[in-house]
Amino acid sequence: MVVKKLKVIDDKELKKLKTESKSCIVINDLIYDVSSFYEHPGGYDLFKEYEGLDATDAFNSIGHSENAKNLMNSFLIGIKKNSKEYKKKEKTKIIENKIEYINYSDEEIKKEEKEPQESKPKENKPTLIKKEDKTNYPVVAGIIILFGVAYYFLFLK
């Protein structure tokens, strides 16, 4: 059994990580730094939508393979302070240089991922919304007409 020492991260520090250009998301009370995971099949923009937020519902609504769940462990950086998982593991708390850590094993992480979501209370979190088309069609039409007129006067007249 491999035991990891996870840093305890509160909301204030989560916001601080965002200002340091770190893209952190929360899934099942565990915090993942996905800043370097540009190859995400759903697109990196998906992470930007949930940056600093709980993405558990979005993560669980999409089917993820066991390989994807194992890959997540390489991005795991901490546990959310005062969360349900934190309170379960508070007895293993270690404080080093005024930084709080909690011991967490790989088996516990896998167990948490497999736990049914019905037992968890639903919270009002943002839902995944498709990006709005920001194309300015009147400007595009004007440019096409401008090129047509220029072509006429330069090559046909």
TrEMBL record:
<keyword id="KW-1133">Transmembrane helix</keyword>
<feature type="transmembrane region" description="Helical">
    <location>
        <begin position="135"/>
        <end position="154"/>
    </location>
</feature>
<dbReference type="GO" id="GO:0020020">
    <property type="term" value="C:food vacuole"/>
</dbReference>
<keyword id="KW-0472">Membrane</keyword>
<dbReference type="GO" id="GO:0020037">
    <property type="term" value="F:heme binding"/>
</dbReference>
<keyword id="KW-0408">Iron</keyword>
<dbReference type="GO" id="GO:0046872">
    <property type="term" value="F:metal ion binding"/>
</dbReference>
<keyword id="KW-0349">Heme</keyword>
<dbReference type="InterPro" id="IPR001199">
    <property type="entry name" value="Cyt_B5-like_heme/steroid-bd"/>
</dbReference>
<protein>
    <submittedName>
        <fullName>Cytochrome b5, putative</fullName>
    </submittedName>
</protein>
<dbReference type="Pfam" id="PF00173">
    <property type="entry name" value="Cyt-b5"/>
</dbReference>
<comment type="similarity">
    <text>Belongs to the cytochrome b5 family.</text>
</comment>
<dbReference type="InterPro" id="IPR036400">
    <property type="entry name" value="Cyt_B5-like_heme/steroid_sf"/>
</dbReference>
<keyword id="KW-0479">Metal-binding</keyword>
<dbReference type="GO" id="GO:0009055">
    <property type="term" value="F:electron transfer activity"/>
</dbReference>
<keyword id="KW-0812">Transmembrane</keyword>
<feature type="domain" description="Cytochrome b5 heme-binding">
    <location>
        <begin position="6"/>
        <end position="81"/>
    </location>
</feature>
<feature type="region of interest" description="Disordered">
    <location>
        <begin position="110"/>
        <end position="129"/>
    </location>
</feature>
<dbReference type="GO" id="GO:0016020">
    <property type="term" value="C:membrane"/>
</dbReference>
<dbReference type="InterPro" id="IPR050668">
    <property type="entry name" value="Cytochrome_b5"/>
</dbReference>
